[in-house]
Amino acid sequence: MFFFCDDPARTRRYIQIIKAVFDNTVEGIMITDANSVIQMVNAAFTAITGYSSAEVVGSSPRILKSDRHSADFYKDFWMRLVNEGHWEGEIWNRRKTGEVYPEWMVCTAVYGEDGAPEHYISVFNDLSEVRFKDAQLELRSNFDFLTGLPNKDAFRSRLQGEIASKSTENKRLALLVFDINRFKNINDSLGHYVGDVLLKQMGDFLTECAGSAALVSRIGADDFYIMLTDVESPEEVASRVKKIIACLAEPMEIEGYRLFISASIGISVFPDDGADAEELIKRADIAMGKAKESGISSFRFFTEELGVSASLKLSLENALREGMDRNEFFMTYQPKYCVRSSDFSGAEALLRWERPDGVVLPSDFIPLAEETGLILPLGEMVFRKVICQIARWRESGMFMGEVAVNLSTRQFHQSALLHRIKSLLDEYGVPPSSLGIEITESGIMDNLMDSIKTLSGLKELGMTIYIDDFGTGYSSLNYLKRLPIDALKIDKSFIDNVLEDVNDSAIVKAVIGIARSLSLRVVAEGVETVEQLEFLRQNGCDEIQGYLLSRPLPCEALPEFIKTRGPDPFLRIVDHAHTAERPDSLCCNDGRGRFLS
Region 416-427: what's the mean pLDDT? Predict the structure, then answer.
């Protein structure tokens, strides 16, 4: 069966080469005689089957038979091998351990000088690991690794198929976009492991709650898609969604924690809301965003009005990007006054956007900038404009006090924030004490430990730190005493009715008392009447700002305003109040337009 030549040395060399290949190849090799008695096997045969050479030599290959193939399979195998001298294909065999596994085998006849088969050589590969890897690839391609649910691509494919089917049957289907409310808080406070366990249990919960005819998919983060294929009307969809929400009323037991979960659900219906998968998904997502505004478990169907709103939102986003390129944004400055000295103490920098077709309210573009991530370049622009303006005022000899800038949550938690602010201060030669930083309670609590580190860094640079809108968020003394801050700002919503509402009055007094006990200053926002001012003065408030004193002013108008107000602007305001019911500058809207509302 081996090749021999007249040169003995060369023959020995050929035999050495053939033996090396036989012994070291990763394919299993089995050689039998013409009667199918095993004559020789290699090391790979032993590694794959578990049988040693001593255990199989002299035996029949039937020792490997798996019983997975019919008699016809083996009959065809031998007919082709005898008639054609070759067989190749997939065959299932059994290891010594009893495990059945797939092989890819090539079996070849070796003929003698008389033309009759003398040996059969079988060379085979173990396919079980290949099959396992293929299964893994399929799993990764079509299923979410955490929950085992179909992933986004698999869901879209199935959804498109169902749409095609429903189109011919003239039937409806519903698509639900399910979003877990405040999931990030669970991840941040309890850890990602608990968050992962919650997602897995939520996948199981939705699969069970939605029913066997529904398809549930996790599309990423805390979002799930649910396709209801057997619905007759929107009323039926609403009924089934209400059942899902009702089930969420019970707490979920997650790794020893009892968690009350709420969700926002957006719904689109085929064919009412779209003719293809992309349109249905887009519209259900819009509806989910609207449902999320309530903050509790709720659902919302897509409507044409929502579509128009989303379109306007997209247009505004594009305009926002263009506006930054065209320098359509500018800063205004609202003066702050010290109640005790009745003198100007600084200002708050407020962002404005004036497009060619009119002014865009901060309440319209700031949330959108937050959502799209444009708040970061916008925030960078604000710091540069404000620090540059402070430098100009200092060069002209004007002391403008401290100018406070609002930080968005996303901007506040940037790793390079401290470096970027310090670089701008150094670039324009502005001392850090000229700059104040305002951040909301919710922005701080988004990541408390990170917040303390960042606030400490800002304090070390020499900046004043304010908690903005105090009282509207967590308002926990436990965290307040740990924060390196200088002042609390009382939100305008408490000042508006401080004279009429005993609760607002009590809250304002309490905030001032808390600040006193912690040696913090208090700034009241949105002061519009002399009576509000007197209440704040009598209860120990340190500083105020609002339309009673001034609306936000352009940078060029602020120095002149301060000059003309005289040494005691409060007395002037009181005198004016005796002759007019309200100053001309007052209006029902505070118009603050703060950089972060």
Answer: 93
The domain boundary residue, chosen from 132, 158, 181: 132
- CA angle 389–394–398, rounded 5-degree value: 105
Q: Which pTM value belongs to this model? A: 0.53
Mean pLDDT estimate for the chain? 84
Tokens, residue 4? 């021999």
* Cα 524 off chain centre by: 35
Structural domain that includes position 116: 8-132
Tokens of 23: 């012994």
* CA 299 vs CA 80, 178, 214, 259, 302: distances in Å: 66, 9, 18, 21, 10
Judged on CB neighbours under 10 Å (0-12, 13-18, 19+), 119 is: middle
Sequence-distant (6+) residues with CB within 8 A of 171 are none
| Residue 498: both structure tokens together | 């401080």
Polymer length of the chain? 597
Distance from C-alpha of 433 to C-alpha of 438, rounded to nearest angstrom: 14
Report the Cα–Cα distance between both ends of the chain, in Å, rounded.
88
Q: Which among 363, 347, 333 is positioned nearest to 466, based on CA atoms?
A: 347
Report pLDDT for 588: 31
CA distances (Å), origin 83, targets 29, 77, 117, 124: 22, 10, 11, 21
The residue ranges of DSSP E strands in 325-407, in sequence order, are 329-338, 343-355, 358-360, 402-406
CA 5 to CA 12: how far, in whole Å? Answer: 10
- What does the DSSP 8-state code read for residue 567? S
Q: pLDDT tens for residues 112-122?
A: 888 889 999 99
- Most confidently modeled of 66-75, 393-402, 457-466? 457-466
**Least confident stretch, 68-77, 277-286, 441-450:** 441-450
Burial of 326 (C-beta count, 10 Å sphere; 0-12/13-18/19+): exposed
Cα–Cα distance measured from residue 401 to residue 336, given in angstroms and rounded to the nearest whole number:
9
Give the model's confidence band at 7: pLDDT under 50 very low, under 70 low, under 90 confident, else very high: low
Residue 544 lies in a domain: yes
Mean pLDDT of all residues in 173-178: 93
Q: Which two tokens stand for residue 513?
A: 């008392």
Enumerate helices (H) and strands (E) in the chain, giving the number of each.
23, 22
Q: What residues have CB less than 8 Å from 592, skipping those under 6 apart?
A: 334, 348, 350, 362, 492, 525, 526, 552
State phi, psi for 72 to the nearest 5 degrees.
-65, -35
- Of the candidates 27, 18, 33, 58, the one whose C-alpha atom is nearest the C-alpha of residue 45 is 27
Here the tokens at position 294 are 């309530």
User: What CATH number does the domain containing 191 carry?
Assistant: 3.30.70.270
Reported as type and span, the H/E element at residue 559 is helix 558-564
Domain boundary among 302, 332, 363: 302
Question: Does one domain contain both 383 and 530?
Answer: yes
3-class SS letters over 570-584: HHHHHHHHHHCCCCC
Return the H-helix or E-strand segment holding 117.
strand 117-126
